[in-house]
Write a structure and sequence with these properties.
Layout: H1 16-22, E1 29-35, E2 38-44, H2 51-71
Antiparallel strand pairs: 1-2
Length: 100
Amino acid sequence: MPLVRVKEKHQVTIPAEVRKKLNLKVGDYLEVETRGDVILLRPKAVVVVDRAKEKAWKRLHALLDQVHHKIGPVGPGPPQDRPGPRRGSGAGCSGSDSSP
């Protein structure tokens, strides 16, 4: 069992064989737990929330909700299932393929 030393600022170096076995990289997070006189370090995945991006996504969703409220549902499907102008119904269209 490797022996490590507590350094200034109470830092310890995790032995290379342990880092390799657990695939630990610089910047990874470890959860620290004590069990009696034992210190347990457990690798943890952490999701970092970017508050600015989260706020921007909320604003985008709110804007899209407003658009959908005004024009109705939008999405795949035949045009006749969606509100709005239909093919061939514009000005100057006779709706037939025959020429005069």
